[in-house]
Recover the amino acids of this structure.
């Protein structure tokens, strides 16, 4: 019998109050430390002071004194937090961290985000203990949990990032021999929404549209293919506003590189265009894409997407596998929709800021490709999704306001194409008309990168549909606003 | 597969041209043809429709046998000067040339003079080089002018003038002729029916797909020199004089660069080093053995204009970073007419190893001469 089964049930608790206070101080110091390290990292990685992370913080003597004083305070008070290794146990200290940050992927159900399965489960002490040292290494290196932004912090609702104190806690636990501690002091096991909702992470959808089953043949290596599926009248008997939707790659989803979709209204003339065309390029009402690391979409209250009665969904599928006998598989991707409870105030749109004309030279270590969009209306920005492929190295998105002020929207100094994260604002980001959004990407076409991903660095690379080609993209979900609404919000 | 066909097409085009053009010239200038090593080619792509004019730089203006034709006091005569090809229908003046007749080896062009009138005679290249015996002959009037500077040999160039239109520019000695042309509608874009895929292997060459995407959003001007070196400039489409960026031309202060909010930076790619006055613009600036690639920025300076070359050819038109500046040259500026041309670029040959880079936007025109120094 599992030790966990014997544990008394307990609600998920917050860290002790004294810990919260100290975490506040730590995070203040940490913020400075991280920003500085971001600048240094970018200089190292890009050899360019104008690369992501620049111009954020300068250490002045005053800052130094403040940091030193705060550090002193912390040094005095820190032992009470978690640094004493003997006090740290799995149940009391580590399990809450794992529940909040790791278990959504590290669990055996396999119905987690977009069908991805993390390589090991960390649901119980028995499952976690063998990986203790590896966990400590990963969190110290900030490779886990997978949150790649160096800045900004605290603005995205899906931020997965351990505080320094949490990292110290895990390291202290491992150094102490990874003790279990008293099971009664730990929180209840988590119950994930998809376990109650047939695998859907946002709850049970109001309606689900599944594409027809398709067989990817043995000889296929890389395939872009689009399907259409009319939304049955009994699912959408009249025009409907949806607030959320969730992509599911379906069976054999691990061979779906990405999956994009859009709503095609009755009478709308949309046809995929080759070469290299993606169905969603031409769909006016896009639902965005699902790729490894992506999450489902639930818009904030007041925002929605209209699906007219009689609409058709596009399924722009990109399959990728090794070709050969026995590699054939079948797939039927799904889209689940969540109907808005009240008619939304703002209809969302989807923008793609891209540069499709680039040519990355052979062997270039740090090739900069930029694109930009100047807003013609006031908008509320809801999500950002930077996208490139294997040669993508780093990305940065900025907003330059009409008055010349520049704000960093996103800085991702070390891109990993395996994690196509959509960054979701906690609160809609209001950007006035005339603001310029710049999307910067840096690409690495050197032998070292090529060796990691089996690429050919001797060739120049342009925009193309295969994973082995490249893309320079920034995808944005937003809603256009009435100017009065923007002024009110900015004024607040 | 598409890409292979494309390159085969170019190869066949090249071989076919050398064969046909050699024959065509043999009547007019047999001596020159004997020493000819190839052709110079000016190419213009607007919304993925491409026209190219090719000429052997062997027609010297001071050649006695052309004196009667080029005489300032009037004359008559006819000389084969170039070949014209296109991927779509072209209308020169009011003469429509079908795409079939324009595909390689295309139309032969004869420059013809009767008294004070100049015209261009076009005939389908069918191996018969004399217009009098060729089939499908057409004649379009040319606008003639006399310049102050002279081209020692005949040159031809295609210049963009709007989204669908361009101008064929012929220069020889002090004489200059022009005729406007219009591209026909692009072919219907191939549509992929839902449920039919687009499969590729890892080894497939997808460069033609990349080029197709590039030309979805940009236009291109190219010059191919005698030795086969290629110079090209990609410039963003639809940068109209009514757009948000054009007014900067009038308001730019000293030192200011013209920003393109609606397009990427203008992109030069060159397979041969270019010398602009004392300034050398090299190949290999981004990777050894790779063509030179530069972003081009218009800069207001000391009451005049300069062109800044940067090592970042793929940034947006608002993302200039002076740390990546590579070179800066002076531009000649002229206010040509009341033209409403959108932003455009042409590379006009002025000899076998030289040319003129010309940028224009509305009535404004900037240019700089260069020598291919490879």
């Amino acid at each position: 019998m599992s030790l966990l089964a014997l544990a008394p049930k307990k609600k998920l608790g917050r860290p002790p109050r004294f810990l919260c206070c100290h975490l506040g101080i730590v995070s203040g110091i940490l913020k400075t430390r991280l920003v500085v390290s971001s600048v240094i990292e970018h200089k190292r990685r890009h050899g360019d002071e104008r690369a992501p992370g620049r111009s954020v913080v300068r250490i002045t003597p005053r800052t130094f004194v403040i940091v030193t004083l705060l550090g002193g305070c912390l040094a005095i008070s820190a032992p009470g937090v978690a640094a004493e290794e003997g006090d740290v146990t799995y149940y009391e200290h580590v399990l809450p961290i794992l529940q909040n940050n790791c278990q959504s992927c590290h669990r055996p159900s396999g119905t987690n985000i977009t069908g991805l399965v993390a390589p090991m489960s960390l649901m119980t002490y028995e499952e976690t203990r063998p990986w203790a040292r590896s966990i400590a290494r990963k969190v110290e290196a900030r490779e886990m949990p997978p949150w790649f932004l160096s800045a900004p912090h605290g603005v995205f609702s899906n931020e997965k990032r351990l505080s320094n104190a949490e990292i110290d806690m895990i390291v202290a636990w491992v150094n102490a021999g990874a003790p279990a501690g008293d099971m009664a002091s730990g929180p209840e096991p988590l119950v994930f929404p998809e376990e109650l909702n047939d695998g859907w992470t946002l709850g049970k959808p109001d309606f689900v549209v599944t594409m027809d089953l398709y067989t990817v043949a043995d000889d296929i290596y890389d395939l872009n293919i689009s399907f259409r599926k009319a939304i049955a009248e009994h699912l959408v008997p009249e025009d409907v506003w949806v607030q959320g939707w969730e992509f599911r790659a379906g069976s054999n989803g691990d061979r779906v590189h990405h999956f994009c979709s859009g709503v095609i209204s009755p009478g709308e003339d949309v046809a995929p265009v080759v070469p290299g065309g993606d169905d969603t390029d031409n769909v006016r009402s896009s639902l965005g894409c699902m790729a490894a690391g992506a999450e489902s979409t639930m818009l904030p209250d007041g925002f929605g997407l209209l699906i007219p009665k009689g609409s058709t969904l596009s399924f722009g599928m990109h399959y990728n596998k090794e070709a050969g006998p026995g590699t054939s598989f079948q797939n039927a991707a799904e889209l689940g929709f969540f109907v808005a409870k009240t008619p939304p105030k703002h209809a969302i749109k989807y923008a793609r800021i891209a540069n499709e004309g680039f040519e990355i030279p052979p062997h270039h270590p740090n090739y900069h490709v930029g694109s930009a969009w100047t807003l013609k209306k006031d908008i509320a920005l809801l999500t950002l999704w930077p996208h490139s492929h294997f040669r993508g190295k780093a990305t940065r998105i900025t907003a330059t306001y009409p008055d010349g002020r520049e704000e960093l929207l996103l800085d991702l100094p070390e891109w990993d194409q395996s994690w196509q994260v959509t960054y979701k604002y906690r609160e809609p980001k209001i950007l006035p008309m005339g603001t310029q959004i710049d999307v910067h990407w840096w690409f690495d076409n050197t032998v070292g990168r090529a060796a990691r991903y089996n690429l050919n660095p001797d060739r120049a690379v342009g925009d193309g549909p295969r994973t082995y080609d490249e893309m320079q993209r920034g995808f944005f979900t937003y809603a256009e606003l009435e100017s009065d609404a923007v002024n009110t919000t900015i004024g607040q | 597969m598409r890409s292979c066909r494309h390159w085969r097409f170019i190869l066949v085009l090249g071989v076919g041209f050398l064969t046909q053009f050699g024959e065509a010239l043999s009547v007019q200038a047999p001596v020159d043809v004997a020493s000819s090593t190839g052709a110079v080619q000016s190419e213009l792509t607007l919304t993925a429709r491409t026209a190219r004019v090719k000429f052997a730089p062997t027609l010297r203006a001071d050649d006695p046998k052309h004196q009667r034709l080029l005489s300032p006091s009037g004359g008559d005569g006819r000389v084969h000067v170039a070949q014209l090809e296109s991927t779509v229908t072209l209308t020169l003046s009011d003469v429509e040339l079908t795409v079939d007749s324009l595909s390689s080896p295309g139309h032969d062009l004869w420059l013809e003079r009767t008294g004070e009138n100049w015209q261009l005679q076009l005939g389908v290249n069918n191996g018969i080089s004399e217009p009098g015996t060729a089939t499908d002959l057409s004649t379009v009037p040319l606008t003639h002018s006399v310049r102050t500077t002279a081209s020692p040999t005949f040159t031809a160039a295609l210049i963009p003038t709007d989204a669908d239109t361009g101008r064929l520019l012929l220069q020889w000695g002090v004489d200059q002729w022009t005729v406007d042309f219009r591209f026909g509608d692009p072919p219907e874009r191939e549509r992929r029916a839902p449920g039919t895929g687009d499969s590729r292997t890892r080894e497939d060459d997808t460069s033609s797909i990349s080029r197709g995407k590039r030309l979805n959003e940009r236009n291109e001007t190219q010059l191919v020199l005698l030795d086969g070196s290629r110079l090209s400039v990609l410039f963003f489409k639809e940068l109209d004089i009514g757009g948000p960026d054009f007014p900067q031309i009038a308001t730019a202060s000293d030192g200011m660069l013209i920003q393109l909010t609606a397009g990427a930076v203008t992109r030069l790619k060159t397979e041969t080093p270019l010398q602009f006055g004392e300034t050398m613009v090299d190949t290999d600036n981004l990777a050894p053995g790779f063509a030179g690639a530069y972003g081009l920025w218009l800069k207001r300076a000391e009451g005049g204009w300069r062109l800044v070359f940067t090592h970042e050819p793929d940034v947006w038109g608002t993302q200039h970073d002076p740390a990546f500046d590579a070179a800066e040259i002076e531009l000649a500026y002229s206010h040509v007419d009341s033209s409403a041309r959108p932003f455009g670029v042409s590379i006009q040959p002025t000899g076998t190893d030289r040319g003129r880079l010309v940028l224009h936007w509305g009535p404004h025109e900037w240019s700089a001469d260069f020598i291919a120094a490879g």
The longest strand of chain A covers residues 222-230. Chain A has ten helices and 21 strands. The first helix of chain A runs from residue 3 to 6.
